[in-house]
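Worked example

This section walks through a single chain of length 529. The input is the sequence exactly as stored; nothing has been trimmed or padded.
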Amino acid sequence: MKRILGVVLVAVMAATIAGFAAVQTSSAAPTVAAFTPKLTAWSTCSYGQCATVTVPLDYGHPDNGKTVKLALSRKSAQTSAGPYAGMMLLNPGGPGGSGLYLAGRQSDVPGSAAKRYDWIGFDPRGVGNSVPSLHCNSSYFGANRPNFVPTTQALYDYWRKKTNAYAVACGNSSAKALLPFMTTRDTVRDMESIRQAYYNQATSAKKPMLTKLNFYGFSYGTWLGQVYAARYPTKVGRFILDGVIDPRRYWYHSNLDQDVWFDKNLNSFFSWIAQHDSTYHLGTSWLTIRSGYNRLLKQLDAHPAASGKLGPDELTDAILEASYYVYHWRSIASNYSQLVRSGNGTPMWNRYVDSNQGDDNGYAVYLAVECTDAPSPSFAWQRDDTWDVYKKRPFLAWDNTWYNMPCLTWKASAHTPVNPYGTQVKSHILLISETHDAATPYSGAVEVKRRFPTASLIAGLGGTTHAGSLSGVSCVDDAIAAYLADGTVPTRQSVHSYDLGCPKVPVPSGGLLGRTSASSVMPLLLRGS
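Given that input, the structure is written out below as C-alpha cells.
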C-alpha cells in the first residue's frame, strides 16, 4: 500500500529532471539515448516461451556498461484469429509483482480478438527472474510480532528499529546497485526498451511492421500505463488499465485512502458472513461480527493462537485478502469461524504464511519503487495522520504505516513525483474500476478519465474487488474483447462519472467450500496496489 506527500522534493538528479520534466504535456516520443536494447531468442519454458531483454541500469548513462536483464514470457498470436495486431505487454501490479504468468491470460478474453496479439509478460527490474533480483531479509514477516498498534513507547521503538533494519538490509543487498534506479520512470523506460527490441526482432522475422505498444496493466500497472502514455503518446496502442491509481495521491495519501476503504470492505465481508450465519455461526449483523473481531485482536495479543504464532498482526494480514477480493470469501470465513468458535488458529495461520512469509523479493521491490518515486513525510507527520485514521478506521491503519516505514531511512533518494496527463494521446484507452475498490479507490479512475480525453471508464457497480477484469463478468470481458478487436470503447459520458456500468464481480453463495470464477490475475503481493 502507498502514500503520497504533497510537497515536492527540491533536490533531484538533473538527469531525472531533464528526462521527465515534460511528462505532463510531452507530444514527442523520446528514445533511449545511445543504447540498443537486446532481446534474446525465444525458448520453451513453463510459461510457454521465455526470453530476456538487456537494458541499461541507468538510462542517464546508458553507455557505462552496467545493465539489467529483464525476464519475458510469451503466448504467441494465432494466425487463425485474424491479422497480427502486435505485442500486448502486461503488468500485474505491486510494485513488485512478477508478470510472467500473465501471458497465459490471452485465453481468458472472450472470442478470438486477444489471439491476434503476442501476449508478453515480464518481470520488471529487480523482480523474480530478472537479473539482478532484489532480496533483503526473507524472515522479515515472522510469527507473533509485537502489536502493530503502538500503545507504548516500547512498541514505537520496536517498529522503528525493525523497519530501519529492513532498509539497511536492502542497502547491503547484493543487488544494492539497483536502488537508485527503481522508480516508475525507470520501468517505463524499460517498457519502451521492450517495445523497441520486440518489434526489431519481429520485423527481422518478417512479421508485419508494427510500432505501437499495447498494454494491459493491473493495479500499479495502471500507473505504469499512465506515465508511459504521457511520456510516449505517439507509441500508445490499445491500453487497458484495471484498478486505476489516482495520480493526485501517490504514494502517501493513497495509503490513507486505502486505510479507510479496506476498513469499509472488511465490514462488507462481515456483512456477508452475517447473511450466512447458518454456516459460520458468528452473528447475524456485521456490527456483532466486527465487535467480536475487535475483542479477538485483544485476546490474541495476550494469548496467540496456532501454537503461539498467530497474534493480532498475523490475523490482520491474513484476513486482509477479504478486503481486496471476493474470490476466497468462503474459505476465509471458514478459517475465521474455526478460530473464533473453536480456537483453532492453524488454518488462518497457514493463510498468513501463504501470503507473507518466504521470499521477500516482492516487498523489497515494492519499497524500492515507492520509496524513490516520491518523498515520505516525517515520522511525526505519519504518526499523527495514522492516529487520526485509526480513531474511525482502525483495521489496517498502523499495519499500513509500518509496512511503508522503511522509506524513512531508505538507502536511495526520493524523486520529484511525476504528474501525467494524456492530452497528446490519440488512441482510445480503456479504464476499469469497481466502485468500492479499496486498493485503488474509484475516484482515481474518474480523475484519470479527466486527464486522458481519449479514455473511457467501465465501472463495476457496488463491487469491492480490486483489478478484477477477466473474472467472468461478461459485461466487462466482452467490452475488453471488442476493444482489442477494433478499438471500440464505451462512448464518453460525463467527465465526472463512468461510461459503462457493469455488474460487480459476484460474491460467493453460502457454504464452506469453493470460490467464484477464477482470478489468476490476483497479484502475489497483496500489500500493493
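What to look for: Residues 252-275 form the longest helix (24 residues).
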